[in-house]
Amino acid sequence: LPIHVYRKLRKNGFGGPTPAFPLGNIREMEFLCEKNIKDYDSSLESPAISHDIHSTVFPYFSKWQKSHGKVFIYWLGTEPFLYIAEPEFLKKMSSKVQGKRWGKPNVFKHDRKPMFGSGLLMVEGDDWVRHRHVITPAFSPTNLKTMVSLMVEPATKMLERWTALINTGKTEFDVEREITTMAGEIIARASFGLSCENGGEMLGKLRAMQITLFNVNRYVGVPFGQWICRRKNMEAKKLGKEIDQLLLSIISVARNKCGEGSGQRQRCLLGYLMEGERLNERELVDECKTFFFGGHETTALALTWTLLLLAMHPHWQTQLREEITRVIGDGEIHFTNLAALNKMGWVMNEVLRLYSPAPNVQRQAREEIKVDDLVIPKGTNMWVDTVAMHHDPTLWGDDVYEFRPERFKDDHLYGGCKHKTGFLPFGFGGRMCVGRNWTFIEYKVVLTMLLTKFSFSPSPSYHHSPSILLSLRPRYGMPLIVQPL
Ligand code: HEM
């Protein structure tokens, strides 16, 4: 029972904001978010762009941290959550738990089901081990090598679209929307091996579902919360079913198109997953949904935030262009020379630090965990605040809010962070992101193509308001001024 978990947690001495039945701390969370938006909308001038974003995206955690420290208890409805923004605590705790023994909070499962089903992101225990074993080889460097050409085509199409726009005199446009569409096309091609007319339809439905599920407060953890949001739940369920139908037809086409033993099967993620029939049809659908959503939005956001930061720091555009000329020259982009784009790697890490597309990680303890003399009881929900750790001056120093890719020069994995668990854009432990190598490749391929064609500068119509819609995104899109080189 949540109350037993809470009492055991309290015995450890953890504090937290006072909850009220039946919403827990949701009312205060809502209030602080609404206040932020109101203050923003009522201010006459757009505020200067600041990378100190924790109090903007998570105003409640930022406030509670001040009174209760970096580990405390808060409540979503009648479910207590252990909030964690302390890397040492996280390290000690996660070192005790194997990947397969971690759970995902039951309280979120209902909400996330239409989006991810029982795909790798949500599955637990021995099923997780089986799925992970099937999926990991699909992301091996040998397989990813063949994906580069699948990435180049949609990116070329986007570049052509931008050139056409510029030729009509339009030099300012929303790069977030453009890049998200392109990343959707990439994942549709790479996941399903189709130049997928269905890809656009599915992308539209997934986006509609994301907005339905995460744009409004879902009263997660509140008794009868599902009834309060009944209409939205029904809408999400319906969209979920339509997406499943689309995927089932894609899977059946892929089965027929790439018969057993055909070399073509190897060319897409679905082909790898279908090999050996180790996943049944339902599991394939859920994995495809997980790839489709997890695989395009996060990478697209990493690229979008990068363009903003490069627009603000043109000397980094110049440095990256010089590196591209040195490493790639005028030739084609090959998998083998991507690794030599070192500065681009630093830029990517710095962007993932300042604007981590995955702003938090959630867990549920499926067994009791001991951390020194503290006891985290079985059933404890946890909320790891990645944004807080990535913006913590005690971990990164006084220049924590500055864009300084060179911090990754001598320490390319941790950027000089004082604690190695303080930088976790791809999660932690055995459940770390399975698609991170994919991201490194897509990011470098697309950014190389963009920087060799265009230069970027900030647009006066951009309003800096990072917000959470499951991922960390610019609330009002990302208009930038784009000029041909
Ligand atoms: C910038 C890009 C990306 C970021 C920031 C990111 C972030 C993350 C994070 C933080 C997790 C851990 C979630 C958790 O523990 O609950 C995760 C897991 C996962 N990611 Fe990514 N991801 C990215 C790209 C991708 C791509 C390109 C794919 C697939 C094509 C992908 C597929 C997955 C899957 C399937 C998992 C679940 C892994 C497991 O639980 O075993 N991600 N990702």
Automatic annotation (TrEMBL):
It is a single-pass membrane protein. This is Cytochrome P450. The lineage of its organism: Eukaryota, Viridiplantae, Streptophyta, Embryophyta, Tracheophyta. It is found in: Membrane. InterPro entries: Cyt_P450, Cyt_P450_CS, Cyt_P450_E_grp-I, Cyt_P450_sf, Cytochrome_P450_Monooxygen. It holds the Pfam family p450. Keywords: Heme, Iron, Membrane, Metal-binding, Monooxygenase, Oxidoreductase, Signal, Transmembrane, Transmembrane helix. It comes from the Eukaryota. Its cofactor is heme. Coiled coil: none annotated. PANTHER family: CYTOCHROME P450 FAMILY MEMBER, CYTOCHROME P450, FAMILY 715, SUBFAMILY A, POLYPEPTIDE 1. Belongs to the cytochrome P450 family.
